[in-house]
Design brief:
Helices cover about 15% and strands about 35% of the residues. It is mainly beta. A hairpin with a 5-residue loop joins β11 and β12. α1 packs antiparallel against α3.
Amino acid sequence: MGNGGYSCGRFAERVEGPAEVTLRRPVPLDRPLQSVPGRDTMIVVGDEDGTIAEVRPVAPLDEIEPPVRPTLEQVRRYGQDSPFLTEEHPYPGCFVCGPEHPEGLHIHAGPVEGRPDVCSGILEPRESLPSTDGALDSEVVWAALDCPGLTADRLRTAGPHLLGRLTVELIAPVPNDVSSVVVGWGLGSEGRKFYSGCALLTPEGDLLARSRAVWIALAKG
C-alpha cells in the first residue's frame, strides 16, 4: 500500500493552502484512482475499493507550534535512541522512517532529552527526491511530517499504528540542499486514537511546514 503521508500529499495537490486528508482505507498501488468533487470535499475513489480518502481545505494551523527547536547536533544525538532503528519498528520498509527502504527518507526520530513525549529527526537532502527549482515537492514534505509525529514513547507503549488523518500547512519552500529538522509531539489520546503535531524547521529553527495527525493503534491480538 502507498505510504500514508506521501499519498495524502499527492491527494492534496489540488487544494489551495492548508489541507486535511482523511484516509478511509489503504491506498492501493496497483490500480488507478480518480478524484470526484463533492460539496465541501474532494473524494478519492478506486473502482474496486470505493472511497480511499477525503480531502478538504482548512484554516492555517496556528495552534501547532513545536515545543522545542533542537539543533542539528542535538537531533543527531537523539536519533541514536530511535525506536525506528530497532526491532520495535513495525514497518522497516516504510518510505519515511524505515531503515530498509532503499530510496526512503530515513527520518529516524528519537526522543528529545527530558521530553519523552517529543521526538526529533533529520530530513537529509538527496538528489533522488522529487524537487522543483531546488525545493522539495509538496508530497515529500507531507511524507516528512508523517511518521515523526508518532513519538517514541507512544510506539513503545501502544505498538503499531496507522495514519488516519493528516492536516498540513506548507509555510515556506523546503530546500533540497540542506538538512531540515523534524519535531513531533503528542497532543493527547482517546481510546486507540493518538493525536500528534509535527513541524519541519530550518537548522536555524525557522518554521517551514507543520501538521496535525490522527493515528489509530492496531488492535492487539
